[in-house]
Design brief:
Distance between the termini: 33 Å
CATH superfamily of one domain: ANL, C-terminal domain
Number of strands: 26
Strand content: 25-35%
Largest sheet: 14 strands, mixed
CATH class of one domain: Alpha Beta
Structural class: alpha/beta
Radius of gyration: 23 Å
CATH architecture of one domain: 2-Layer Sandwich
Length: 538
C-alpha cells in the first residue's frame, strides 16, 4: 500500500530555507491583501469586530516598534499572558518580527507558575492582561532578569501601558531576518517530576506545520472562516488559530466568551464557519445538547479534534446531524501533528489515525526496536523529523531522557494495526490530560502538600465521560485532621490559589496510606488502575 493510499496524502518533503520568519510571511500577505479579513472577534454579548490583514499588520508593527524602543530584540525572551483576541495575534507577530522568543502562557497561570517560567528562561519582559497583573506583581521582586512589565488593555501603577507605548509608534516595521534554526517559541509543558519543561521550537517550525497539519488535516483554504477554540498560552493555539490560519491567508474566528455547548453550536449556526478545531470535551458536550436539529451548521466542511481519541458515539452524532466527520489527530508541544485522520482517509473511531507523511513513526519496545503489528509499546517518531523540538531549555538530562536511540519517545503507548492505524492505549508516564489541558501530577501534589492538613498525596488521571479524564487526588492527612466534605472543598480551593485553576483535583479521596515501591516511591500506576476499574468508560 502506498503512502497516498494510506493517508490520502502524497509524500511530503519540507526543506527549510536558511532564513525564515513566519511573521514576515504574514506581513507580505497583508501587503498584498490589506482588506482581506484576518480575524472576526466575537465577545460574550455576540458583538463582532472584523480585523483586516492590513489592520493586523499595522497594529503588530506598532507593537514591534514600541517594544524595540524598550530594548527588546533578537533572542530576548518575553512571556505573553493574554486571552483570546486580536491582541494575542498582534503581540505574537510583533515578537517574531523582532526576532524575540515568544513564551506562551495561559492567562490562568498563578504567580508560582509565572515565577518559574521567568526565572527558568531568564525572561526579559512580560506582557499581561488585567486578570494576571496581581499574580505578576507578587513575584516581580524575585525575578532578576525581568526588566519590563507591560500591561495590555489597562492602566496600572508600576506597569508600562501597551496602549500608551504604541500611541505614537510607526505602523511600518522591517522584520528581522531570522535564521530558520533560531529559537522562536519557548513553550512550557507539564512534567511528571519537577517543574514544567521549556520546549524549544525554531523559526522554521511553522513551515513544517503548514505543510501537513494545516493543509491535509485541518484542510484550511484561503477563503475559509476557521474556528480553532484553543486559547493563547497553549501549543495548540500556535498550531491552529495562529499558524494554520494566518499562514494560509484564511480568516480566524475568535470567540472571547466561556465555553458553553449551546452557545458554540449557535455560533457555528449563525456564522459561515467552514473549519472547526475543538477539544474532545467540547465535541462531547456539543453532541449531548438536546434537540440538535435546531442547528444546521450548513457551512462546516472540516472538523478536527486533538488531545485524545474521540468516542464513536460523538463522531456518529456529528455525521448524522451535520454531515461532517470529526477527524482525530495527535501531536504534542514537542512536535506537530504526527498522527491523524487526514482528508480523504477512512476514519476509524477510537484510532488516532495514521502517521503523517512528514514523519516516520513506530511502536517500539524498551530497547528501541519496532514492535510487530498489534503489540502495545511506546509511540515514537524518528529523531530527524523536521518539526521535532530542539530540546528542553536548560535541561540536558530531560532532553536525553526523551530519546531512545534514533527515536523520540512521546510518552504515550499504543499499538499499530495491519493497516497502519495507531490506537492509543494510555500514558507511559503519569501526565494527566483533562479537557484538553496537560497537567503534571507533581504540580498538583506540590500545591496540596503545602496545606497544613496534608501529610502526603498522589494525583492521577480518573476517567470522566465529558473531559476524558479529571485530576483525582489521594490524600493522607496529618495526625489530628479528619476528612470531610468541607476539607475537600478547602483543599480544592487551596490548589486553585497556588496553581492554575484547571489543575485542581475535581475528585479527592482521603486514604490511610499510599501504595509504594520497596524504595518508597509512590505507585501512581496502581492508583490509575484503581480509578480505571471504578470508572469504566464505554
Amino acid at each position: 500500500m502506498t503512502e497516498q493510499q494510506k493517508t490520502g496524502v502524497g509524500q511530503v518533503q519540507v526543506e527549510l530555507p536558511e532564513y525564515y520568519n513566519f511573521a514576515a510571511q504574514v506581513e507580505q500577505y497583508a501587503q498584498a491583501h490589506p482588506d482581506k479579513a484576518a480575524l472576526v472577534v466575537v465577545d460574550e454579548e455576540l458583538a463582532a469586530l472584523t480585523v483586516s490583514y492590513g489592520q493586523l499588520a499595522a497594529y503588530s508593527n506598532r507593537i514591534a516598534n514600541a517594544l524595540r524602543s524598550l530594548g527588546i530584540g533578537r533572542g530576548d525572551k518575553v512571556v505573553v499572558l493574554v486571552p483570546r483576541g486580536r491582541e494575542a495575534y498582534a503581540i505574537y507577530l510583533a515578537l517574531l518580527k523582532l526576532g524575540a522568543v515568544v513564551m506562551p502562557g495561559s492567562e490562568m497561570l498563578r504567580s508560582k507558575d509565572i515565577e518559574y517560567r521567568i526565572n527558568h528562561a531568564g525572561a526579559k519582559a512580560v506582557l499581561a492582561f488585567s486578570g494576571v497583573l496581581g499574580e505578576v506583581d507578587a513575584i516581580r521582586a524575585v525575578c532578576p532578569s525581568l526588566e519590563h512589565a507591560v500591561a495590555v488593555g489597562v492602566i496600572r501603577e508600576g506597569w508600562l501601558s501597551l496602549e500608551q507605548l504604541i500611541e505614537n509608534a510607526s505602523e511600518h516595521f522591517e522584520p528581522v531576518q531570522t535564521r530558520s534554526d533560531e529559537l522562536a517559541f519557548l513553550s512550557y509543558t507539564s512534567g511528571t517530576t519537577g517543574g514544567p519543561k521549556g520546549v524549544m521550537h525554531v523559526h522554521g517550525w511553522p513551515l513544517a506545520h503548514l505543510a501537513v497539519a494545516s493543509t491535509h488535516w485541518l484542510d484550511v483554504r484561503e477563503d475559509d472562516l476557521v474556528w480553532a477554540t484553543a486559547g493563547p498560552g497553549w501549543a495548540k493555539w500556535v498550531w491552529s488559530p495562529f499558524v494554520s490560519v494566518l499562514g494560509k491567508g484564511a480568516t480566524g474566528f475568535v470567540y472571547r466568551g466561556r465555553f458553553d455547548p449551546e452557545r458554540y453550536l449557535t455560533l457555528l449556526d449563525q456564522h459561515p464557519i467552514s473549519v472547526l478545531c475543538a477539544t474532545p470535551t467540547e465535541y462531547r458536550l456539543m453532541a449531548k445538547v438536546r434537540d440538535l436539529d435546531r442547528f444546521q451548521l450548513k457551512t462546516l466542511r472540516s472538523a478536527c479534534s486533538a488531545g485524545e481519541p474521540l468516542n464513536r458515539e460523538v463522531i456518529d452524532t456529528f455525521r448524522r446531524q451535520f454531515q461532517v466527520t470529526v477527524r482525530d489527530g495527535y501531536g504534542q508541544t514537542e512536535n506537530t501533528l504526527i498522527v491523524g485522520t487526514f482528508v480523504g482517509m477512512e476514519a476509524r473511531p477510537g484510532s488516532m489515525g495514521r502517521p503523517s507523511p512528514l514523519v516516520k513513526a513506530a511502536i517500539i519496545d524498551e530497547q528501541g526496536n519496532p514492535l510487530p503489528v498489534g503489540e502495545v509499546g511506546d509511540i515514537a517518531i524518528d529523531r530527524s523529523m523536521i518539526a521535532l523540538f530542539k530540546g528542553y531549555w536548560n535541561d540536558a538530562e530531560r532532553t536525553a531522557r526523551a530519546f531512545r536511540g534514533n527515536w523520540y519517545v512521546t510518552g504515550d503507548q499504543g499499538r499499530m494495526d495491519e493497516d497502519g492505524y495507531i490506537w492509543f492505549e494510555g500514558r507511559a508516564d503519569d501526565i494527566i490530560i483533562s479537557g484538553g489541558y496537560t497537567i503534571g501530577p507533581f504540580e498538583v501534589e506540590d500545591a496540596l502538600v503545602k496545606h497544613p492538613a496534608v501529610a502526603e498525596c498522589a494525583a492521577v488521571a480518573s476517567p470522566d465521560p465529558e473531559r476524558g479524564h479529571v485530576v483525582k487526588a489521594f490524600v493522607v492527612l496529618k495526625q489530628g485532621y479528619e476528612g470531610s466534605a468541607e476539607l475537600v472543598r478547602e483543599l480544592q480551593e487551596h490548589v486553585k490559589q497556588l496553581t492554575a485553576p484547571y489543575k485542581y483535583p475535581r475528585k479527592l479521596e482521603f486514604v490511610a496510606e499510599l501504595p509504594k515501591t520497596t524504595s518508597g516511591k509512590i505507585r501512581r500506576v496502581e492508583l490509575r488502575q484503581l480509578e480505571n476499574s471504578r470508572n469504566p468508560i464505554g
